[in-house]
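Predict structure. Input: Damage-control phosphatase ARMT1-like metal-binding domain-containing protein, 313 residues.
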Amino acid sequence: MRSKRAESDTTVPDAPSLQLKLRNMLKGMLIYLMTSRKIPIPKAMEDGGPPDCILLGRIREQIIRELGFGDIFKKVKDEENAKAISLFQEVVRLNEDIEDEGKRLENLVRGIFAGNIFDLGSAQGWDVLLGYSSNLVPRPRVIDDFDTFKAKWGKKSWERAVILVDNAGAEVILGIFPFARELLKRGTQVVLAANDLPSINDITYPELVENISKLKDERGMLIGVDTKNLLIANSGNDLPVIDLTRVSQELTYLASDADLVILEGMGRGIETNLYAQFKCDSLKIGMVKHPEVAQFLGGRLYDCIFKYDEVSG
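Output follows.
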Protein backbone atom coordinates (compact mmCIF):
# COMPACT_ATOMS: atom_id res chain seq x y z
CA MET A 1 0.00 0.00 0.00
CA ARG A 2 2.66 2.52 1.01
CA SER A 3 4.99 1.64 -1.86
CA LYS A 4 2.17 2.02 -4.40
CA ARG A 5 1.29 5.43 -3.00
CA ALA A 6 4.96 6.38 -3.01
CA GLU A 7 5.24 5.49 -6.69
CA SER A 8 2.55 8.01 -7.58
CA ASP A 9 4.01 10.80 -5.41
CA THR A 10 4.63 13.60 -7.92
CA THR A 11 6.47 15.72 -5.35
CA VAL A 12 9.44 13.32 -5.35
CA PRO A 13 11.77 13.09 -8.37
CA ASP A 14 12.12 9.56 -9.74
CA ALA A 15 9.42 8.26 -7.39
CA PRO A 16 8.87 4.95 -9.29
CA SER A 17 12.46 3.78 -8.78
CA LEU A 18 12.55 5.07 -5.22
CA GLN A 19 9.35 3.21 -4.35
CA LEU A 20 11.00 -0.02 -5.47
CA LYS A 21 13.93 0.77 -3.18
CA LEU A 22 11.45 1.56 -0.40
CA ARG A 23 9.69 -1.76 -0.86
CA ASN A 24 12.96 -3.70 -0.83
CA MET A 25 14.23 -1.89 2.27
CA LEU A 26 11.01 -2.54 4.18
CA LYS A 27 10.96 -6.17 3.05
CA GLY A 28 14.60 -6.58 4.03
CA MET A 29 13.94 -5.15 7.47
CA LEU A 30 11.13 -7.65 8.09
CA ILE A 31 13.19 -10.60 6.82
CA TYR A 32 16.04 -9.55 9.08
CA LEU A 33 13.75 -9.39 12.09
CA MET A 34 12.18 -12.76 11.40
CA THR A 35 15.47 -14.56 10.82
CA SER A 36 17.72 -12.94 13.42
CA ARG A 37 15.08 -12.16 16.04
CA LYS A 38 16.91 -8.92 16.61
CA ILE A 39 15.89 -5.35 16.01
CA PRO A 40 18.19 -3.01 14.05
CA ILE A 41 18.40 0.22 15.99
CA PRO A 42 19.29 3.30 13.92
CA LYS A 43 21.63 5.75 15.67
CA ALA A 44 18.82 8.30 15.92
CA MET A 45 16.64 5.98 18.00
CA GLU A 46 18.63 3.91 20.44
CA ASP A 47 15.55 2.78 22.32
CA GLY A 48 16.45 -0.84 22.74
CA GLY A 49 13.73 -3.20 23.88
CA PRO A 50 11.63 -5.70 21.95
CA PRO A 51 10.44 -5.07 18.38
CA ASP A 52 7.03 -3.66 19.32
CA CYS A 53 4.76 -1.77 16.94
CA ILE A 54 6.05 1.63 18.11
CA LEU A 55 9.68 0.81 17.38
CA LEU A 56 8.86 -0.91 14.08
CA GLY A 57 6.78 2.09 13.09
CA ARG A 58 9.62 4.48 13.86
CA ILE A 59 12.06 2.53 11.71
CA ARG A 60 9.56 2.32 8.86
CA GLU A 61 8.85 6.05 8.93
CA GLN A 62 12.56 6.83 9.07
CA ILE A 63 13.19 4.76 5.93
CA ILE A 64 10.36 6.53 4.11
CA ARG A 65 11.68 9.97 5.02
CA GLU A 66 15.31 9.12 4.32
CA LEU A 67 14.31 8.30 0.73
CA GLY A 68 12.79 11.76 0.39
CA PHE A 69 9.10 10.94 0.63
CA GLY A 70 6.90 13.30 2.61
CA ASP A 71 3.13 12.93 2.82
CA ILE A 72 2.49 10.16 0.29
CA PHE A 73 -1.20 9.95 1.24
CA LYS A 74 -1.80 13.71 0.93
CA LYS A 75 -3.98 13.48 -2.19
CA VAL A 76 -6.33 10.83 -0.81
CA LYS A 77 -6.57 12.66 2.53
CA ASP A 78 -7.51 15.91 0.80
CA GLU A 79 -10.17 14.10 -1.24
CA GLU A 80 -11.68 12.41 1.81
CA ASN A 81 -11.59 15.64 3.84
CA ALA A 82 -13.47 17.49 1.09
CA LYS A 83 -16.13 14.77 0.89
CA ALA A 84 -16.58 14.74 4.65
CA ILE A 85 -16.83 18.53 4.88
CA SER A 86 -19.65 18.49 2.32
CA LEU A 87 -21.59 16.09 4.58
CA PHE A 88 -20.78 17.67 7.95
CA GLN A 89 -23.82 19.93 8.23
CA GLU A 90 -26.22 17.07 7.45
CA VAL A 91 -24.55 14.74 9.97
CA VAL A 92 -24.83 17.40 12.69
CA ARG A 93 -28.47 18.03 11.77
CA LEU A 94 -29.29 14.33 12.08
CA ASN A 95 -27.65 14.26 15.52
CA GLU A 96 -29.50 17.40 16.62
CA ASP A 97 -32.81 15.83 15.61
CA ILE A 98 -32.33 13.10 18.24
CA GLU A 99 -33.96 14.54 21.35
CA ASP A 100 -33.04 11.73 23.75
CA GLU A 101 -29.56 12.56 25.08
CA GLY A 102 -28.52 8.93 25.52
CA LYS A 103 -29.60 7.97 22.01
CA ARG A 104 -27.86 11.04 20.60
CA LEU A 105 -24.64 10.02 22.35
CA GLU A 106 -24.96 6.50 20.95
CA ASN A 107 -25.40 7.91 17.45
CA LEU A 108 -22.31 10.10 17.89
CA VAL A 109 -20.24 7.09 18.97
CA ARG A 110 -21.52 5.04 16.05
CA GLY A 111 -20.33 7.85 13.80
CA ILE A 112 -16.80 7.53 15.20
CA PHE A 113 -16.80 3.78 14.61
CA ALA A 114 -18.11 4.21 11.08
CA GLY A 115 -15.42 6.76 10.26
CA ASN A 116 -12.69 4.53 11.70
CA ILE A 117 -13.16 2.14 8.76
CA PHE A 118 -11.25 4.60 6.55
CA ASP A 119 -7.82 3.34 7.59
CA LEU A 120 -5.22 2.92 4.87
CA GLY A 121 -2.85 1.35 7.37
CA SER A 122 -5.07 -1.73 7.46
CA ALA A 123 -5.35 -4.12 4.53
CA GLN A 124 -8.72 -5.27 5.87
CA GLY A 125 -9.95 -1.69 6.14
CA TRP A 126 -8.83 -1.05 2.57
CA ASP A 127 -10.77 -4.13 1.40
CA VAL A 128 -13.89 -2.73 3.04
CA LEU A 129 -13.46 0.62 1.28
CA LEU A 130 -13.05 -1.13 -2.06
CA GLY A 131 -16.11 -3.26 -1.45
CA TYR A 132 -14.26 -6.58 -1.30
CA SER A 133 -15.43 -7.47 2.19
CA SER A 134 -18.77 -8.93 3.21
CA ASN A 135 -18.05 -8.36 6.90
CA LEU A 136 -19.85 -5.05 7.27
CA VAL A 137 -22.46 -6.47 9.64
CA PRO A 138 -22.29 -5.05 13.19
CA ARG A 139 -19.80 -6.90 15.36
CA PRO A 140 -20.08 -7.64 19.08
CA ARG A 141 -17.88 -5.41 21.17
CA VAL A 142 -14.97 -7.08 22.90
CA ILE A 143 -14.86 -4.38 25.57
CA ASP A 144 -18.07 -2.42 25.93
CA ASP A 145 -18.33 0.15 28.69
CA PHE A 146 -20.74 2.32 26.73
CA ASP A 147 -23.64 2.02 29.19
CA THR A 148 -21.33 3.07 32.04
CA PHE A 149 -20.06 6.03 30.04
CA LYS A 150 -23.59 7.01 29.03
CA ALA A 151 -24.66 7.06 32.68
CA LYS A 152 -21.74 9.33 33.54
CA TRP A 153 -22.41 11.50 30.47
CA GLY A 154 -25.69 12.60 31.98
CA LYS A 155 -24.25 13.27 35.44
CA LYS A 156 -20.65 14.34 35.00
CA SER A 157 -19.29 17.67 33.82
CA TRP A 158 -15.76 17.33 32.47
CA GLU A 159 -14.03 20.70 32.43
CA ARG A 160 -11.36 19.75 29.88
CA ALA A 161 -11.31 16.81 27.47
CA VAL A 162 -8.23 15.93 25.41
CA ILE A 163 -8.93 13.90 22.28
CA LEU A 164 -6.05 12.32 20.36
CA VAL A 165 -7.47 12.03 16.87
CA ASP A 166 -6.68 9.47 14.20
CA ASN A 167 -7.56 9.33 10.50
CA ALA A 168 -8.37 12.14 8.10
CA GLY A 169 -11.70 12.32 6.30
CA ALA A 170 -14.91 10.87 7.70
CA GLU A 171 -13.39 9.71 10.97
CA VAL A 172 -12.27 13.07 12.26
CA ILE A 173 -14.74 15.35 10.43
CA LEU A 174 -17.93 13.27 10.66
CA GLY A 175 -17.03 11.30 13.78
CA ILE A 176 -14.83 13.33 16.13
CA PHE A 177 -15.95 16.86 15.23
CA PRO A 178 -19.67 16.22 16.00
CA PHE A 179 -18.65 14.47 19.23
CA ALA A 180 -16.38 17.37 20.20
CA ARG A 181 -19.17 19.81 19.32
CA GLU A 182 -21.48 18.00 21.74
CA LEU A 183 -18.88 18.33 24.50
CA LEU A 184 -18.55 22.06 23.74
CA LYS A 185 -22.31 22.42 24.10
CA ARG A 186 -22.00 20.94 27.59
CA GLY A 187 -19.44 23.57 28.58
CA THR A 188 -16.36 21.34 28.27
CA GLN A 189 -13.13 22.79 26.93
CA VAL A 190 -11.99 20.43 24.16
CA VAL A 191 -8.42 19.89 23.00
CA LEU A 192 -8.00 18.06 19.69
CA ALA A 193 -4.45 16.76 19.28
CA ALA A 194 -3.09 15.57 15.93
CA ASN A 195 0.20 14.29 14.51
CA ASP A 196 3.10 16.62 13.93
CA LEU A 197 4.26 14.73 10.82
CA PRO A 198 2.28 12.66 8.30
CA SER A 199 1.87 8.93 8.73
CA ILE A 200 -0.40 6.91 6.43
CA ASN A 201 -3.77 8.74 6.28
CA ASP A 202 -3.65 10.11 9.84
CA ILE A 203 -4.64 13.75 9.92
CA THR A 204 -1.83 16.16 10.79
CA TYR A 205 -1.92 19.26 12.97
CA PRO A 206 -1.91 21.73 10.03
CA GLU A 207 -4.68 19.74 8.30
CA LEU A 208 -6.75 19.71 11.48
CA VAL A 209 -6.44 23.50 11.82
CA GLU A 210 -7.33 23.95 8.15
CA ASN A 211 -10.43 21.77 8.26
CA ILE A 212 -11.76 23.28 11.47
CA SER A 213 -11.41 26.75 9.93
CA LYS A 214 -13.38 25.63 6.86
CA LEU A 215 -16.27 24.50 9.05
CA LYS A 216 -16.50 27.58 11.26
CA ASP A 217 -18.61 30.51 10.20
CA GLU A 218 -17.51 34.16 10.27
CA ARG A 219 -18.40 34.38 13.98
CA GLY A 220 -16.27 31.36 14.86
CA MET A 221 -19.31 29.16 15.38
CA LEU A 222 -19.47 25.47 14.54
CA ILE A 223 -23.08 25.21 13.37
CA GLY A 224 -24.43 27.25 16.24
CA VAL A 225 -21.86 26.24 18.85
CA ASP A 226 -19.18 28.66 20.04
CA THR A 227 -15.65 27.33 19.49
CA LYS A 228 -13.83 29.63 21.92
CA ASN A 229 -13.25 26.56 24.12
CA LEU A 230 -11.92 24.46 21.23
CA LEU A 231 -8.12 24.15 21.11
CA ILE A 232 -6.03 22.44 18.43
CA ALA A 233 -2.73 20.95 19.60
CA ASN A 234 0.30 19.40 17.98
CA SER A 235 0.83 16.03 19.68
CA GLY A 236 4.46 15.81 18.55
CA ASN A 237 3.74 12.32 17.19
CA ASP A 238 4.71 11.00 13.76
CA LEU A 239 3.32 7.46 13.86
CA PRO A 240 -0.10 5.79 13.37
CA VAL A 241 0.33 4.59 16.99
CA ILE A 242 1.50 6.77 19.87
CA ASP A 243 4.01 6.59 22.69
CA LEU A 244 2.51 8.77 25.42
CA THR A 245 5.92 9.27 27.01
CA ARG A 246 7.04 11.19 23.89
CA VAL A 247 4.32 13.74 23.25
CA SER A 248 4.96 17.45 22.72
CA GLN A 249 5.41 19.92 25.57
CA GLU A 250 2.28 21.66 24.31
CA LEU A 251 0.15 18.55 24.69
CA THR A 252 1.76 17.70 28.02
CA TYR A 253 0.79 21.13 29.35
CA LEU A 254 -2.77 21.01 28.01
CA ALA A 255 -3.33 17.49 29.34
CA SER A 256 -1.87 18.21 32.78
CA ASP A 257 -5.23 19.30 34.22
CA ALA A 258 -7.56 17.37 31.90
CA ASP A 259 -10.29 15.34 33.51
CA LEU A 260 -11.05 13.24 30.41
CA VAL A 261 -8.57 11.80 27.89
CA ILE A 262 -9.86 10.10 24.75
CA LEU A 263 -7.58 7.92 22.61
CA GLU A 264 -9.37 7.32 19.35
CA GLY A 265 -8.56 4.83 16.61
CA MET A 266 -7.03 1.37 16.51
CA GLY A 267 -3.38 2.47 16.68
CA ARG A 268 -3.65 4.94 19.57
CA GLY A 269 -6.59 3.52 21.50
CA ILE A 270 -6.12 -0.24 21.09
CA GLU A 271 -2.71 -1.35 19.82
CA THR A 272 -0.58 0.82 22.11
CA ASN A 273 -2.70 2.20 24.96
CA LEU A 274 -5.69 -0.06 25.58
CA TYR A 275 -4.55 -0.77 29.14
CA ALA A 276 -2.83 2.56 29.80
CA GLN A 277 -3.83 4.06 33.14
CA PHE A 278 -4.42 7.77 33.67
CA LYS A 279 -4.88 10.08 36.62
CA CYS A 280 -8.18 11.21 35.10
CA ASP A 281 -11.08 9.54 33.33
CA SER A 282 -10.11 7.94 30.05
CA LEU A 283 -11.85 6.51 27.01
CA LYS A 284 -10.31 4.26 24.37
CA ILE A 285 -12.40 3.80 21.26
CA GLY A 286 -11.72 2.14 17.93
CA MET A 287 -12.47 -0.68 15.53
CA VAL A 288 -10.30 -3.82 15.27
CA LYS A 289 -8.98 -4.13 11.72
CA HIS A 290 -5.92 -6.33 12.19
CA PRO A 291 -6.51 -10.09 12.58
CA GLU A 292 -3.59 -10.36 15.02
CA VAL A 293 -5.16 -7.75 17.31
CA ALA A 294 -8.55 -9.49 17.09
CA GLN A 295 -6.94 -12.81 18.03
CA PHE A 296 -5.08 -11.24 20.96
CA LEU A 297 -8.32 -9.75 22.30
CA GLY A 298 -10.27 -12.95 21.75
CA GLY A 299 -12.59 -11.33 19.21
CA ARG A 300 -13.08 -10.93 15.47
CA LEU A 301 -12.26 -8.43 12.78
CA TYR A 302 -14.40 -5.27 12.95
CA ASP A 303 -15.17 -5.73 16.63
CA CYS A 304 -15.72 -2.36 18.28
CA ILE A 305 -13.78 -1.40 21.38
CA PHE A 306 -15.27 1.07 23.85
CA LYS A 307 -13.25 1.07 27.06
CA TYR A 308 -14.09 3.65 29.69
CA ASP A 309 -12.04 3.94 32.89
CA GLU A 310 -13.25 6.29 35.61
CA VAL A 311 -11.00 7.70 38.28
CA SER A 312 -12.98 7.96 41.50
CA GLY A 313 -12.72 11.17 43.47
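The radius of gyration is 19 Å.
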